[in-house]
Amino acid sequence: MGKLIAVLLSVLLATTFFIGSDEILNKADIQIQEWEVPWEESRPRDPYVAPDGDIWFVGQRSHYVAEFIPETEEFRKIDLEDGAGPHTVVVDDMGNPWYAGNRANHIGKINPETGEITKYMMPEDNSARDPHTMTFDEIGNIWFTSQGANSIGYFDVETEQEKILEVPTPRARPYGIIMDKDMVTPWIVLFGTNKLATVNPQTMKLREIELPNEETRPRRLAQTSDGMIWYGDYSRGYIGSYNPNNGETNEWELPSGESSRPYAVTVDDKDRVWLVETGVDPNMFVGFDTNSKEFVASEAVPSGGGTVRHMVFDEATNSIWFGTDTNYLGRAQLD
Predict the structure, then answer these.
(1) 151 close to 128: Cβ distance less than 8 angstroms
(2) Consecutive H or E run containing 249
């Protein structure tokens, strides 16, 4: 009994819960603008800011990768094979878009000038059958998740070889992935569990990190300049933090509470974490200041959003880009 009490006290001390306020004092100015994507019901998602400032995104339902030029508000579409089901696109330093062929077992590279596509097939044993979310490391290689295959992948763009790491927990559903500040070490959320994960890039050993509440389901994550990992708890409606140095966790309830369903997550250069509550209509764009530990903005997505699944902060323009299930590409201009 004594050991049980000690364990319970340890859990209580390790995690602190804060309840969000019903009223958000809008201390951060945010202006949201949206552009309707010219291809109907295509589920535009996962925008990425290219080195030249253009925005690339995928149409998951209509199997395309597209470019948007903010200055001229022009769209350009590059069709993929039927059934590709692209999930994410990232753009390398040379301006080449790389997409995750989520439903067709491959990662693809596009020549932005000609539209030529080079496909890199994942293993025939389906160990990475559904490339999901991708991110570049410091030398331009790609780390990615495979939710259905339950694996983390690493793709060397020079050798064109992949290495696949099976997640030990069955049906863990590896989902969002980011690089640590060092751009060497990946961090992952395991959406089917109450766990985070990371990989030692030297040993390629995967480590799972259990969060205290069994009902937690982290879906996307971000890292602030102090090294803290922040996640949105899709199941319970919290924003949470994990300290990699001492394992401490903290949580704050989101403004819409249990119904908030936080999905897209990113962080700006002021260490404000931004989340989109997708369990409410319209979706709400919520800002959390990680220094003052308070919510600083809550703004409705003009089109309603449907579901905002992923977003990215662009330091050059101090803005956040996102796609919506209502078929819009959006930009949140920050103060």
Answers:
(1) yes
(2) strand 249-253
Could you tell me if 217 and 198 are in contact, meaning their C-beta atoms sit under 8 angstroms apart?
no
The continuous run of DSSP H or E covering 252 comes out as strand 249-253
12 in helix, strand or coil? Answer: helix
Residue 88 has pLDDT above 60, yes or no: yes
DSSP for 296-313 reads: EEEEE-TT--S----EEE
Both tokens of residue 45?
């998602």
Strand partners, 267: 273
Smallest CA-to-CA distance from 47 within 56, 39, 59 is with: 56
Distance of CA 93 to the CA centre of its chain: 20
69 phi and psi angles, rounded to 5 deg: -100, 110
Euclidean distance between CA atoms 109 and 106, whole angstroms: 10
List pLDDT tens digits, range 261-306. Answer: 999 999 999 999 999 999 999 999 999 999 999 999 999 999 999 9
pTM: 0.92
Give the tens place of pLDDT for each residue, 28-80. 899 999 999 999 999 999 999 999 999 999 999 999 999 999 999 999 999 99
From the list 55, 63, 134, 64, the residue with the least C-alpha distance to 95 is 55
Q: Strand pairing partners for 223?
A: 229
Name the residue type at position 326: T
> CA dihedral in degrees (209, 211, 217, 220; nearest 10)?
-60
Q: Is 125 helix (H, G, I), strand (E, B) or coil?
A: coil
Other C-beta atoms closer than 10 Å to the C-beta of 110 total 22
